[in-house]
Amino acid sequence: MPDDRPSPRQRITVWAILLMMLVSLFDLGVFVGSFVLWLPTTMISLGTQIGGLPDILVNWILAGPLFALIGLAAGWLTFFFRPRNGLLIGFLVPLLWLIPLVVLVAMGEGRCAGGIC
User: Fold this and answer.
1) Residue 105's closest CA among 33, 1, 46, 48?
2) Which terminus has fewer CB within 10 Å in the chain: N or C?
3) Under 8 Å between Cβ of 86 and 79
4) Is a pLDDT exceeding 70 seen at residue 117?
């Protein structure tokens, strides 16, 4: 026998709203912080070739604001329907950009010992 009852609507609590505001601040911090990388990355891609980064890495670094905006917008849109999924989307989408960037910086730091190689 099929269950014809509608699923109960999830309630949005004050705690969830506060967490979503913190996630939004994180997204905005990633958005603003990623603009700091635009000038050096643009200089690398325009031909100075400091370190000779491949084009895909340059494009990945330049995509930071896009990842932050997608996380912010999709997180809030999803939050109104399913609060937990909205929190996860808002937090994990910018991390998809941030974690590989940290790995790239760590690899460069390990290979070049803090200098330009």
Assistant:
1) 33
2) N
3) yes
4) no
Instruction: Please write the tens of the pLDDT for every residue from 59-96.
Output: 788 889 999 999 999 999 999 999 999 999 999 999 99
Residue 26 CA from chain centroid, whole number: 9
Q: What is the pTM of this model?
A: 0.78
Q: Which of 16-30, 50-64, 69-83, 92-106 has the lowest mean pLDDT?
A: 50-64
Quote the CA–CA distance of 7 and 21 in Å, as a whole number: 27
Q: Tokens 């910086």 map to which residue?
A: 105
